Amino acid sequence: MAGAAGREAMIERLLAELQRWWHLEDVPLRPRPRSRKRRRRRRVQGPTWDFFSSFSSSFPVIAEGLPTVRQPVESSTAPSMRDFETHMMASGRPLLIREALAHWPALHERPWASPAYLLEKTFGGRRLVPVELGRSYTDAGWGQSIITFKEFMEKYMMSSADASKLGYLAQHDLFAQIPSLRNDIAVPDYCYTNPPPTKTAIKDAGLTAAGKAAAPPPRLDEPLLNAWFGPAGTVSPLHTDPYHNILCQVVGQKYVRLYSPAQTDKLYPKGVEGGGVDMSNTSEVDAEAPTDELDAEYPLFRHAEYVETILREGECLYIPVGWWHYVRSLSVSFSVSFWWN
Q1: Residue 1: CB partners within 8 Å, gap ≥ 6?
Q2: Which residues contact 142 (CB under 8 A, 6 or more apart)?
Q3: I need a surface site. Which of 76, 176, 201, 313 has the fewest CB within 10 A?
Q4: How far is residue 159's CA from residue 165's CA, in Å, rounded to a whole number?
Q5: 252: three-class secondary structure by DSSP
Q6: Do 75 and 97 form a contact (C-beta atoms < 8 A)?
Q7: What single-letter DSSP state applies at residue 153?
Q8: Could you tell me if 233 and 315 are in contact, meaning their C-beta atoms sit under 8 angstroms apart?
Q9: Average pLDDT in the 275-295 region?
């Protein structure tokens, strides 16, 4: 059921009907009384009360200590589109935006903070998802696996934190796979402003990480959405993105540290690795490693200037194109990134 024009819309309608059947027919609001009569024929059915009762209505409170923020990102409360555009053009720096997501159902009546709700949206956790295994994609032993959403929840989201057993649903187009979740959020209006041209923004900072003249990425007709869902301790290592980004926090909180492209020479970007993979948008530095280790191997890193913030539920962070950023989940965290240019 793929390939022909119009098939995507048809598949979405079929999935919506299956979801409606799943919810109306087989997800009771209270335990069903057991019948004394045995049925001759077993009926195919969805999840029972016992299935959903095994999952809490909220995620376990497993949180890491909050870092001390010494160089805070500039913040604004629900700026107008004109004010936001002025900020981009005038300073070109990150901006923490508060109270801009209050209308999202994912924060209220259709809560992504509810494991039971997410399981319902994935046919009782039967949908398959790609999961990164390990703390960060730059760590030794990092890998990937495709597992059911239920297995991901049981193994990585509902159990005690264990740095050796971290799973991260990272940079995944979850909303194309499960369109009903897309209805729980909205593209921030800020993604429809006019940012500084990508080529100009990077040129103002100097060069790309690889030391070559920057080439602008393809133009996006619509913002590009990705989901980031994982337990406390998962990390996106210090890296840059090719587009302007609005990172929205739906569940939990994250620590984010950002460096201007002008600091690139102090951040030790990687180069082309085995197999011809260009990793020049990723730093060799583990930004939160012990200071003595960093000084020994990356002596210039301590002189790199940065800003930082703790991104909380209902907040979003504007990350300008070309800015290096390091992100660590401080609790169970569900974020959505919106790339645009």
Answers
A1: 7, 10, 11
A2: 132, 133, 134, 135, 136
A3: 176
A4: 10
A5: coil
A6: yes
A7: I
A8: no
A9: 91
Q: Which amino acid is at 110?
A: R
pLDDT in tens, 200-238: 555 544 445 444 555 678 889 999 999 999 999 899 999
3-state SS, one letter per residue, for 57-94: CCCCCCCCCCCCCCCECCEEECCCHHHHHHHHHHCCCC
How far apart CA 203 and CA 230 sit, in angstroms, is 35
Q: 22-50: per-residue pLDDT in tens?
A: 554 544 444 455 555 555 544 444 444 34
Residue 75 in contact with residue 55, Cβ under 8 Å? no
Local structure of 97: helix, strand or coil = strand
What is the DSSP annotation of 164-229? GG-EEEEEE-HHHHSHHHHTT----GGGGS-PPPHHHHHHHH-S-TTSS---PPPPPSSPEEEEEE
Best CA proximity match to 341, nearest among 202, 211, 150: 202
End-to-end, the C-alpha distance of the chain in Å comes to 33
Helix (H, G, I), strand (E, B) or coil at 247: strand
CA 225 to chain CA centroid, Å, is: 9
d(CA 140, CA 237): 13
Which residue in the block uniquely carries the two structure tokens 């965290």? 333
The sign of the CA dihedral 215, 219, 223, 226 is negative
Q: Point out which residues pair with 311 in neighbouring strands.
A: 254
Q: pLDDT confidence of 281, banded at 50, 70, 90?
A: very high
Angle at 171 between CA 165 and CA 175, to 5 degrees: 115
Tokens of 181: 């979740």
CB 45: neighbour CB atoms within 10 A? 10
Other CB atoms within 10 Å distance of the CB of residue 71 = 11
Q: What is the pTM of this model?
A: 0.83
Q: Residues in the chain, how many? A: 341
Given CA atoms 228, 233, 239, 240 in this order, what sign does their dihedral have?
positive
**Single-letter code of the amino acid located at 173:** D
